[in-house]
Queue: 2 jobs
Job 1
Amino acid sequence: MRRQRRQPRQNPYRAYRGKSRWGRILSWTAGALAVLLLLLAAGAWAMFRQEWAIAGTIRQLDAPRPVYFMEIEGDYHFDAFLQQGGASSDQEVSAFLTEKISKGFYTASTTLSGTGCSVLSAQSGDGSLLWGRNFDWTGSVPIILRHVPEDGYASLSTCDFQNITGSADVLPEGVVNRMLAIAALYVPMDGVNEAGLCVADLEVNEGGMPDPDTEKPDLTVTTAIRLLLNRAATVEEALALLEENRRRFHTANLEIVPGAAPEACQDLPAPTHAFIGGSAGNMRAIIALLLEKNPAVRIVASAVTLESVAELTACGKEFSFTEWEAVSLTAARSRTAGPYHLMTGQNPVHLFTFQR
């Protein structure tokens, strides 16, 4: 009988030890990576927790075009911005915000381009006040910001996200772009606070904006708007704040002129553009003074009453403007009527543009 050859017996302990050693190595590696990822996630959350919270409030409103809403509670370094001396240009504001938002991991640059602005203020039929800005230029991405500072007045303001990114194709969606939208706090185009103060940036940049000749940094237009919305309740308080900062930052290019037109405008230099939001019955005298100082001045005036419309129409004929345009804007507000909802028209606003 032929005996079968016996196979060498494998040591089960040795096989177990071999598998166990590699298993432990893999387990330790996976565990170390998991701990590292957890530490990185915890560190990122601790470093960017304020930014994550703000970015989480951004939502798109139900509108025919992309319009976004966001909320910021707290100052988000605005006090530190003022304490460092503010900023003398949009580039300096961009550098400050980039460092705060990205914690130094990213740098960005800002480019400037010519712009022109207009806003409207009107009283509706029920006595409430309306305040608005047009976003009718090409490629704007409006953001409506609700801000509640730690020590100041809550406010609503508007910002064009294109002013932050430099592109109308970029929307405040996704992690990175939501982070960038935090800069809207520092670049409001206009706003109204809970005390009723309204502030707007009406910039005309057709010929380029002059550079301020100052020895110390100052506030840009948009950061000045944020300061006023946070800390001023009346026009008088806003003027006092502007004067305080003008002296503090040695802004020789800023001149505050309180008073009523046309008397307060007598000693001012000849304007290239003029915005008239309310004339208190002095529309003709104001326009006459503007034309006396500069016959080619471009004038934009708003009217909410028929008397003001008639006065502006008469001025258009009397002063023989070669360019004369009138635009009527009407808003409607919903109201309930039993189980139905109706739209009630509000008082229209008329915008006149004059130039010889």
Job 2
Amino acid sequence: MRPRTDIIVDMAGWRTATVIGLMAIVEAAAGQEKPPQQPPHQPPPAQEEQAPPEEDETEKPKEYSFNPLQAEKEVRIGNFYFHKGKYPAAAQRYREATRWNASLAEAYIRLGEAEEKKKDWKAAREAYQKFVELAGDDKRSAEVRKKIAKLSKSKG
């Protein structure tokens, strides 16, 4: 018995025709896609007004409120940078800590040390003075007073 080749040929032709037809439909649909147009009676949408710089939220200075947890976190991060030898970054973190908690003496002594490493003698002296003001009875106060005197005399 011989297989019917006419059926096989018809099925192959059917598949080819289907694929070609689908490709034609997809191409036609792609060619007909047009961007949506606005009705002619409506004016184009107005561009969003930009807020003046003083009203822009990203331009506002950061506001600090008492947050001892954030202050401690900033001191820890500052210590990390200090031990890595990145004194400007450490000083910035200690300064941030003093903004979150102005009575955190540890932040001021660490800020003074970082400023000394940066050779910013005036800022170091100011930080040390604030430390002594806040923690005059701390065991490190005597040593810090000596540093303040040394910075006042020799480095202006």
